[in-house]
Write a structure and sequence with these properties.
Elements: H1 3-18, H2 30-43, H3 45-50, H4 53-63, H5 69-84
Helix pairs in contact: 1-2, 1-4, 2-5
C-alpha cells in the first residue's frame, strides 16, 4: 500500500473516531475525508506522519476549533447522522 493511500485510510479511520461513529458504521463519506484531510495534515503533522490513530483523533478533537469550516461542518454532519441512526443491537 502506498504512503498516500495509507494516510488517506488512516485519516478516514481517525475521522470515524472524531465524529463519534461506531466501528460497525460504514466508512466516512468522501466529503468528510476530503473536508478534513488538509486540517489533519496541518494541525497534526507529527501524529499523521507516525500514523498513530489515537493520537491523530486526540489532536483533531483538541484542535477542531482551528480546523477549516468545511471540516467542522463535515464532522458536525457526521455526528448528526450518527445521532439520527437507530442503535444497532449487539
Amino acid at each position: 500500500m502506498s504512503y498516500p493511500i495509507r494516510i488517506a485510510a488512516l485519516s478516514a479511520a481517525c475521522l470515524l473516531g472524531l465524529a463519534g461513529v461506531a466501528a460497525a458504521q460504514p466508512a466516512p463519506s468522501n466529503g468528510v475525508r476530503e473536508a478534513c484531510m488538509t486540517s489533519m495534515q496541518t494541525l497534526c503533522p507529527t501524529e499523521v506522519a507516525a500514523m498513530d490513530r489515537p493520537a491523530i483523533r486526540a489532536c483533531m478533537m483538541k484542535n477542531i476549533d482551528k480546523a477549516t469550516p468545511e471540516c467542522q461542518a463535515a464532522v458536525k454532519a457526521a455526528q448528526a447522522a450518527r445521532s439520527a441512526a437507530p442503535a444497532t443491537p449487539h
